[in-house]
Amino acid sequence: MIYMMTYLYRKRAAPSAKKVLSVAEEDVDGDSNLNEDEPDGSKRKSGLTCGAQLKKLLISCFPATKKKKTTTSTIAPLNSTSTTYYKADFELQRVDAKDESKARNYNLKISSWNVSGVRAWLKKDGLTFLKYEEPDIFCMQEIKCTIDQLPEELERIPGYHPYWLCKPGGYAGVAIYSKIMPINVEYGIDNDEFDSNGRVITAEYEKFFLMNVYVPNSGRKLVNLEARMKWEKLFQAFVQKHDDRKPIIICGDMNVSHTEIDLANPKTNTRNAGFTKEEREKMTELLALGYIDTFRHFYPERKGAYTFWTYMGGARARNVGWRLDYFLVSQRFLKKVVDNCIRSQCMGSDHCPITLFLKL
């Protein structure tokens, strides 16, 4: 954090009766040595002029209160919640030097966004994102909203088939809006402990399974780390069961920054949720089963690419963030992937959306 120090200079004006009190205040601050005691106990002769004696008299009669020093406020602004949308920001920018035409050619677009409460996201103009991105499939996590609480605007978004998983009392919740009607939709991972909050919704399409996931957070002081490790094991088995049938696309908030490049302050977060050794190792295990982190595939050395920023300390404005949101694909499906874009310009949540471009 940068602190700006402001120095105030008081101009010395010509003597004036109207300025007597301000001069007196300056003397009280300790700049004057009027009538100091001598070492032998006698008083030093002041040799004061009539004007100086008048000032001294005024000080004794009207003692000034020492002013407190004022400091510049260091309270950081909150993250912005409004987005200025430009169509050009949603065009495919990546150019493949070997085959530019292939890099820009796609026919399916999937977007994912942890909305951190869909009703709050809606009030922050979240639906405008769909008008500009125009994804074929839109996945949301942490919706915090059951069907009976659903705002009217979200009951049916024109052109999309909606699928929701958020149990009563659940604070998590996931949803898929799809222009293409899935062959089948599965809710949860067949485990009551985790499915009660709504963690995974899986849509089957002709050529792939799409798993929209909100991985449990290990919590402050890692109080949920043990449960998180149990979840990871169950989820890996669930993914592998489906991968035996069709390629997998996993999207959503994985609640982990896999490597040091994936967060702004790795050294100070090694025992914080989202960057523990245990969580990172589980992501490594999942990838080792035959899955690719598509963003790092295309941009292995890109720094400052984050998808989450805390609301505290103006973190988003300073880009002090974490990459917690992913598109993972089965390795054999990688050739179908054209690009993975982080839409960091989109506000409305403490996360930003990410988009995967495919050529099927």
UniProtKB/TrEMBL annotation:
<dbReference type="InterPro" id="IPR020848">
    <property type="entry name" value="AP_endonuclease_F1_CS"/>
</dbReference>
<feature type="binding site">
    <location>
        <position position="255"/>
    </location>
    <ligand>
        <name>Mg(2+)</name>
    </ligand>
</feature>
<dbReference type="InterPro" id="IPR005135">
    <property type="entry name" value="Endo/exonuclease/phosphatase"/>
</dbReference>
<dbReference type="GO" id="GO:0008081">
    <property type="term" value="F:phosphoric diester hydrolase activity"/>
</dbReference>
<feature type="site" description="Interaction with DNA substrate">
    <location>
        <position position="351"/>
    </location>
</feature>
<dbReference type="GO" id="GO:0005634">
    <property type="term" value="C:nucleus"/>
</dbReference>
<feature type="binding site">
    <location>
        <position position="142"/>
    </location>
    <ligand>
        <name>Mg(2+)</name>
    </ligand>
</feature>
<protein>
    <recommendedName>
        <fullName>DNA-(apurinic or apyrimidinic site) endonuclease</fullName>
        <ecNumber>3.1.-.-</ecNumber>
    </recommendedName>
</protein>
<feature type="binding site">
    <location>
        <position position="351"/>
    </location>
    <ligand>
        <name>Mg(2+)</name>
    </ligand>
</feature>
<feature type="domain" description="Endonuclease/exonuclease/phosphatase">
    <location>
        <begin position="112"/>
        <end position="351"/>
    </location>
</feature>
<dbReference type="InterPro" id="IPR004808">
    <property type="entry name" value="AP_endonuc_1"/>
</dbReference>
<dbReference type="Pfam" id="PF03372">
    <property type="entry name" value="Exo_endo_phos"/>
</dbReference>
<feature type="active site" description="Proton donor/acceptor">
    <location>
        <position position="253"/>
    </location>
</feature>
<keyword id="KW-0234">DNA repair</keyword>
<feature type="active site">
    <location>
        <position position="214"/>
    </location>
</feature>
<dbReference type="GO" id="GO:0008311">
    <property type="term" value="F:double-stranded DNA 3'-5' DNA exonuclease activity"/>
</dbReference>
<keyword id="KW-0227">DNA damage</keyword>
<feature type="region of interest" description="Disordered">
    <location>
        <begin position="28"/>
        <end position="47"/>
    </location>
</feature>
<feature type="binding site">
    <location>
        <position position="253"/>
    </location>
    <ligand>
        <name>Mg(2+)</name>
    </ligand>
</feature>
<feature type="active site" description="Proton acceptor">
    <location>
        <position position="351"/>
    </location>
</feature>
<feature type="compositionally biased region" description="Acidic residues">
    <location>
        <begin position="28"/>
        <end position="39"/>
    </location>
</feature>
<dbReference type="GO" id="GO:0006284">
    <property type="term" value="P:base-excision repair"/>
</dbReference>
<feature type="site" description="Important for catalytic activity">
    <location>
        <position position="325"/>
    </location>
</feature>
<feature type="binding site">
    <location>
        <position position="350"/>
    </location>
    <ligand>
        <name>Mg(2+)</name>
    </ligand>
</feature>
<feature type="binding site">
    <location>
        <position position="114"/>
    </location>
    <ligand>
        <name>Mg(2+)</name>
    </ligand>
</feature>
<keyword id="KW-0464">Manganese</keyword>
<dbReference type="GO" id="GO:0003677">
    <property type="term" value="F:DNA binding"/>
</dbReference>
<dbReference type="InterPro" id="IPR020847">
    <property type="entry name" value="AP_endonuclease_F1_BS"/>
</dbReference>
<dbReference type="InterPro" id="IPR036691">
    <property type="entry name" value="Endo/exonu/phosph_ase_sf"/>
</dbReference>
<keyword id="KW-0460">Magnesium</keyword>
<comment type="similarity">
    <text>Belongs to the DNA repair enzymes AP/ExoA family.</text>
</comment>
<keyword id="KW-0479">Metal-binding</keyword>
<keyword id="KW-0539">Nucleus</keyword>
<dbReference type="GO" id="GO:0003906">
    <property type="term" value="F:DNA-(apurinic or apyrimidinic site) endonuclease activity"/>
</dbReference>
<keyword id="KW-0378">Hydrolase</keyword>
<feature type="site" description="Transition state stabilizer">
    <location>
        <position position="255"/>
    </location>
</feature>
<dbReference type="GO" id="GO:0046872">
    <property type="term" value="F:metal ion binding"/>
</dbReference>
